[in-house]
Amino acid sequence: MTIPLPKLDDLTKGTKVEVTVSGTLSESSGGFRMWLADGTSTASDTDICVRSLGNTTHRWVTTWGTAEEKCSIKENDDRMPNLPLEDTTVRQIIRVTTGGEKLRLRLSNQYGESDVTVKSLHLAKQVKADASTIDTATDQVVTVNGTEEFVIPKGKVIVTDPVDFSVNALENIAITSYFGASPTKNITGHRGARATTYQVSGNHVSDETLTEPKTTLSWFFLADASIWSTKESKAVVCFGDSITDGYGTDADYLGKKPDSYTRWVDCFAKRLQENDKTKHFAMTTALKCTARRSFRLERVLITVMLLKKCGR
């Protein structure tokens, strides 16, 4: 698979660039190649974004990520939204692994059968790990191409605009979305969040606490989060089976509960932050494989190579 690069005035051979690719990757792809010949490459594909890094001292580094999967919305499935997504507010929690002053999100509708309309999306710091309460002083609007309301097209992945959002390593971030029209059959998500997601009717994106929310333990439409980090920063991509995904860390029969952040990858991230020599390493999970469900290795390799091409 060859991805042509859009032409930029300052994009010449040898220039270091950041490449963001959105869209559906073919399962038959046997690898990934990218090159620039004499600065003459052109493309009209708006799903490919190229930005020259020049001599910048910072770059985007993935600080959190999860494996996207096709989730079939079924009645009485406690891992799916308890209410239809349209005209509801959903507050999801992620834990970043490194700190910084700017953050952006990658949102996925990879497996959706229709577009997702997001009428409003906000970021804020979570006050307590097992509650919907946010620090309203940190509340920030997230936009896409400068607009608060945007669409995640079916089968596509998009990247939000950067947000000035100061965050420390290992802090919990609440991502609160107010949805318009949304898929009613298949949605893109991850059923192993091990973190509580809160849902209420109506628009409550800036509410300090969501009143009597419906809850589930899945993420919806979230692919990853990146922080504007120093050029020395790197990202460690973890992949494996359900143990890597945190299986058992929220098992009631073992006396455990969600929102504990006790996966081995959480412990690894904490240890990296405890050592001055490894504080610049972020953590992200890109793959989960089980006997019942698998994610194509080609897709993971492409993800890893994209991270490498972006200097992550």
Walk me through what this model shows.
The protein is mainly beta and about 300 residues long. Helix content is about 10%, strand content about 35%. The chain has helices at about 265-275, 295-310, and strands at about 15-20, 50, 60-65, 70, 90-95, 100-110, 115-125, 135-140, 150, 155-160, 165, 170-180, 185-190, 195-200, 215, 220, 220-230, 235-240, 280-290. The strands form five sheets. Strands 5, 7, 8, 9, 12, 14 and 15 form a seven-stranded antiparallel β-sheet that branches. Strands 3, 6, 10, 11 and 17 form a five-stranded antiparallel β-sheet that branches. Helix 1 links the parallel strand 18 and strand 19 (about 280-290). It is globular and about 50 Å long. The chain starts with 16 loop residues before the first strand and ends with a helix.
